[in-house]
Please model this.
Amino acid sequence: MARLADYFVLVAFGPHPRGSGEGQGQILQRFPEKDWEDNPFPQGIELFCQPSGWQLCPKRSPPTFFVAVLTDINSERHYCACLTFWEPVEPTQEAACTEDAVEREEALEEGGLSPTALAPAGQLFAPKTLVLVSRLDHAEVFRNSLGLIYTVHVEGLNVSLESVIGNLLTCTIPLTGGSQRTISLGAGDRQVIQTPLTDSLPVSCCSVALLFRQLGITNVLSLFCATLTEHKILFLSRSYQRLADACRGLLALLFPLRYSFTYVPILPSQLLEVLSTPTPFIIGVHAAFQAETQELLDVIVADLDGGTVTVPECVHIPPLPEPLQSQTHSVLSTVLDPELELADLAFPPPMTPTSSLKMQDKELRAVFLRLFAQLLQGYRWCLHIVRIHPEPVIRFHKAAFLGQRGLLEDDFLMKVLEGMAFAGFVSERGVPYRPTDLFDELVAHEVARMRADENQPQRVLRHVKELAEQLYKNENPYPAVAMHKVQRPAEASHLRRVPRPFPRLDEGTVQWIVDQAMAKMQGAPPAVRAERRTTVPAGPPMTAILERSSGLHANSARRLEVVRNCISCVFEGKMLEAKKLLPAVLRALKGRAARRCLTQELHLHVQQNRAVLDHQQFDFVVRMMNCCLQDCTSMDEHGIAAALLPLVTAFCRKLSPGVTQFAYSCVQEHVVWSTPQFWEAMFYGDVQTHIRALYLEPSEDQAPSQAGETPAHEESPSALDVASEQRRLWPTLSRAKQQELVQKEESTVFSQAIHYASRMSYLLLPLDSSKSRLLRERAGLGDPESAANSLVTSSMAGSVAESYDTESGFEDAETSDVAGAVVRFINRFVDKVCTESGVTSDHLKGLHVMVPDIVQMHIETLEAVHRESRRLPPIQKPKLLRPHLLPGEECVLDGLRVYLLPDGREEGTGGGAGGPTLLPAEGAVFLTTYRVIFTGMPTDPLVGEQVVVRAFPVAALTKEKRISVQTHVDQFLQDGLQLRACTFQLLKMAFDEEVGSESAELFRKQLHRLRYPPDVRGTFAFASGTIHTPGRPGRAPKDKGPSLRALSRNLVKNAKKTIGRQHITRRKYTPPSWEQRGQPPAEDPEDEISVSEELEPSTLTPSTALKPADRLTLSSLVERACCRDYQRLGLGTLGSSLSRAKSEPFRVSPVNRMYAICRSYPGLLIVPQSIQDNALQRVSRCYRQNRFPVVCWRSGRSKAVLLRSGGLHGKGVVGLFKAQNAPSPGQSQTDSSSLEQEKYLQAVVSAMPRYADASGRNTLSSFSSAHLGSHGKWGSIRASGRSGASSMGVDVGSRLAGRDMLGAPQPNGAPPDPGFLRPHRAALYIIGDKAQLKGVRPDPLQQWELVPIEVFEVRQVKASFKKLLKACVPGCPAAEPGPASYLRSLEDSEWLSQIHKLLQVSVLVVELLDSGSSVLVSLEDGWDITTQVVSLVQLLSDPFYRTMEGFRLLVEKEWLSFGHRFSHRGAHTLAGQSSGFAPIFLQFLDCVHQVHLQFPMEFEFSQFYLKFLSYHHVSRRFRTFLLDSDYERIELGLLYEEKGDRRGQQVCRSVWEYVERLSKKTPVFYNYMYAPEDAEVLRPYSNVSNLKVWDFYTEETLAEGPPYDWELARGPPEPPEEERPDSSAPQSRRRVVWPCYDSRPRAQPDAISRLLEELQRLETELGRPPERWKDTWDRVKATQRLEGRTDRHGTPSSLLASSALHPRRSLGIYLREGPVGSTLSLSLDSDQSGGSSASSSRQAARRSTSTLYSQFQTAESENRSYEGTLYKKGAFMKPWKARWFVLDKTKHQLRYYDHRVDTECKGVIDLAEVESVTPGTPTMGAPKTVGEKAFFDVKTTRRVYNFCAQDAPSAQQWVDRIQGCLSDA
Model:
């Protein structure tokens, strides 16, 4: 029983002590006056009576009632029911409170007015409050009781107020149990009080329903989540009762959790500063003080009157986990609005009556009760019972709960479990033996039902209604309640004048009534209602809240089987089997089930006493344990670390007698071991096991040690069941027995604490405690000592244990002592768990003394283990495979052990291409002067014998970034490095643990130094050139070199002095090269061309002749590619331009031979005949970089010319330029340059034959003005006005983009019919950038026309290339595998659309040239896009450039001589590092590749040739593509040394020379389909849909690395004499080819290559000198053509038959095989060039080979460089014999035959083996007639050959020829 009311208080208004206008509350009387012993009087009641402050009021207000809540120091809540009414102010009060007291005094005459009279106007009223203080929450009873007291006073009833108050204070009611009690206060009243059935369920009346009505579902859910996650919540309202109800409702929703923070439903205004407290709270404040709450930044404000909830920006409220959030929301909406489901029905059912507000309140609470049952389902399975007696101590295993529910990532539940409310829940509800309530039943028995009902709203609603019924019944156990009978005051009674104020009561009377009641109570027996306590049901085991599929690691039974098999192999000693299974096991261990399976299997082996292992077994077990642990978080939510903990202290190996190493020393470096929460959970779990065993011992014969390790059987009671039984028995036990049990439990906990102190020291102390002082401070990687740890490679333990200097849980950075840190960590743990578990203080002190000793002993043990482990044999790591190097390539950094990781391409992982998993691979990375090379073996043992090579040139590196590699399959790895190259290679490496951070840093620095040398001389092409081939003497310095060097230096010096000089002395002379040709010098007085602009007299000799160096300059310039090509095109030679005056329209001008006008142009240029050299200087100023228009190609048919130049300068720049370099005074400054420019363009137009008229005038007289307006299909780009770009109408640029203006374009993006150009075209089209052409004045006579186009800038090309790189070589596996993501990223790169634009512009220019108009391409600076377009146009227009020789000439002329900035665009040196790589040349080669694909029969070179150039233009292996212009190449003396500067066996410096040499050996650069049509102009389709991604970007060969360094590729199809047959190979010719590993073109060469190879092999077998492949091929083609002509049926049977069905050439190609008649079809696809689809059988193929071979039975061979008769001395004691000797430069052989016509070779001397050729001496048996000087000896590595020639001169000739062969090789 409990008192209904503890205190009754009367509080009245009193003046404020400081005299301010506000008053303060004063307690007039309180009953009882003495405090109750069990319940002291609460302080501060006077503040809470008037929360808004005590103030006088000018009018009478009706009485108010509300219940405030006060919380005392013991967290007990006191309910203060306050009824306030107003009374007139007494004179004394008024005098004290108001200034005009005198005026009002007469108004207050007591009794002068009748009772009903209204108060006078000046009257003030003061509040007075009746307060009832109780610990029970019966708001309605309090309202009635205080109302009764007020009524008695107001209505003047004949009842003593003292007796009413005395009765109220002595009224007692039962606490719970659903009893009903009728009370009366002695004023003729009657009230019925019902107590709830169970005390634990909150009583809410209607407060929850009201809260939802006020705020709505979403807002209440937000407040609910905010309360549970401990945020601050503030309610605002104008009603105090509403505030109290809202707070009560929110607390009711939290059941079964209790709110334990500040709870003040009504906060007085004087205490508003409480709102800035740092702790969470639920507080209600009157809306009048809303302004004061504005600046609270972290408080969630709920405005009950406005229905809003405001969440500050800095506050994040985690939502409920899905699907609970959405399910709860939908059920709430159904409960609040039952008609929602029926609203859309056409025929709604009859309306069902809605629930009453009280019932709806219970339904809403039922929804939240279900929610908690779903959230906390299975919580009892995660309780650890640590002590049973004297009081239960219970801990909750949070990590296990989250792990098993699958809610690890859920922010909401994590915060709830960490909160105070849940801690209270565990201590209150975790108790195993207690009364149960609705929640316990729900969570134990209804879980299955809730899961089944999830998707059925009707069933959910039914369940909610059932629960609501129970909640309603709990509050209202007796529905048919007798009516209350309580007197109320009459209506408007507060307005009447009360005869007197509330009287002072007699304390004695009230106290007497209370005392009387107390005496009665003491006499009566205590009515204690026995609580029904039971064992709390545990409920079903927990399940995940939402079954998530575990994706890749879903563990099938097969995977678990693999794990079991591997472990049994390890323990049975089948190490080879285990090694094969290990990678699969390590992959499977990513899954939870496999990890659990592993721990169970290992447990079984421990129980079978198989814990002592040998070294290999130990290593396997440790690796598997590490793999299990590496995915464990610090929480160990799946209990894997917990299961492994007993195992790591069980498995061991003997290192030496008396020294044993346990597994724990090798698995320490995981974050879980340094997490205190993990150790606590483990400790409590073990304590629970032992305490359970303690009480099971007597009944079950089971020792505690076994109980700890064997899992409890199904039928055996759980720890909670045991605890429940013990708590039930506890009261029945004797005091001594109780003491004994308490002592036993305490000592059990204590012994476990000692055990755990040891365990923790095992896992926290490192094996080598001396080394890793800083190991524990999370600085492992930064500590060079630990990172570059030498022990790593010396022991098997080291491999695993020592390498993980990564994670630890020690924050003590101030100490460097590991032992001290470990001791502190263990002490903190021991303090916490022992205090919580009730260990005695003596025991705790003993523990603190013990811990340092335990740690010290363990350190001593470890020292011996560490010492012995160092003596173990080193781990077998794979041997480093050294890469093959090129001649001159040197290793800079020897192999650093790394793992090459998969990077997103399928090649390394088998993938779609087929084959095994080659990556990750274990090996080493080498850095040489030329390349970065990885060589290694796959870690997967199933493919371990394959060698993986990935390499790229250092110069191709575009991006290097550090990456943090998670972990490798079996080991933790250090940080990694990702290197990306513009040759589409990517090395994603993780350094092995033996590679220290310094080594990795050194690698990066050296790589950076090699990638960006300070000067171009530091590149590999230069550095390697200085290295002499071993075994050969260095070249004598006397050679042609010095003169060329002198020439270069002289030339540069002259150029530097000439540039910038304005007044030039001119002299004329005849260059020496023309004199040698015998042409007379041309002296024309009118011609002002100066071949040499001489310098000031001081720098020259007085003679007018040129210096020898200058003569040499000019003759060398003439030899350049440009001049050779100009001669071929009929644009004249240097000689002709001087001799033939002006008969030729164009001439070769040497004006730039000193590079004075334009440094980036070649020395000799083609300009119109009529333009003088001195005018060129002025013209050049109008163009960017001085690159004025020059002719670079002329059409043989239409005689139209193609010109190129830089873009035009902006006007301002031109003006500036003109002002600085003033021309001759006669000319106006403003437009001299543009006039020169116009004259120059005019001269170009006039130089074209169809526009120059007979009289030679420079006008177009035949061009009538009528034509100006005719617009045709092209139209003129100028409309009526000619002022600027705005009037250009529809420009050609828009037509380029494929608009309607082009007429009907053909499908696939081919240009429309050539007839679309207007009938009278301009003579010259200038293609320029839109922005640049603004300043150009249109030509008044329409001789030239401007074509503005929009071109992409270099930065766009760079950006596009970066994206292309990422698309083709992603760097990490794609999120969504499959072609879609690749194609999407390819499209995003816009690379193909740039190719499309280039091809489109080029085809347009080709059309214009073909129709007879000349074109000037004038874009950007004239060296990027201009070069691309001009080169493509020439390639499409001129078949010569589609040959090997022609393409070389094209690149040398347009790219090298015309100054494409290879070094700048390739970022070759340190200076270019910031600008980065721009793939301009690569883009051009891609365009050529696209054309090659569409016209495979038009190109002499193969696709491989284009890939080869793509690779080597960035590789810096050759000097060809270095530097930015001819001028720079001369400056370094590079330009002319390639001619004649032969260096014997020297490495090739020019890429062309290398191609030439390789082409002699192998047809790899040759296109067998080459069958050109004469003078064919190609017009490729350019739409993106017609373009293919170049396989250069995507293909990779992991067997040998990039195939473009031919010497390094393994097993190339070399000529047969270099082949070495493998005698050990099996007889079968079959070979497995993996597309992802082998190079398919090498493994399966095409049919023709194979036939040629076969021919060479057969010829060698027959002893004949093999012919060069090219000769054989040409002969086959010739024969086929002859056959084709004699074919009677007239069907073309040539080798490459072309069909005329389609203008684009047929792709059908057939190789006729002689009389057999079977045809071998050749596929044209570049990536399927294998000849595997032969339709003939093997016999037919053999027959065809012999047929082909029979055509070449002649003894003569074209491979004979020099031949003749020599006498050769036989072997020992053999005579001299005359033989016919053939010197073969191609094969590098000296062969001999019996006589000249002999076809059978008798012997071969390989010149590669020749060491020297020296004069010989006559020996016995030598021919007599020959002089002494005719003898010579050839010394090889095997023997010395003696030769004798006819005479001395022929002997000398033989010696010279052989020497020449040796030096050429």
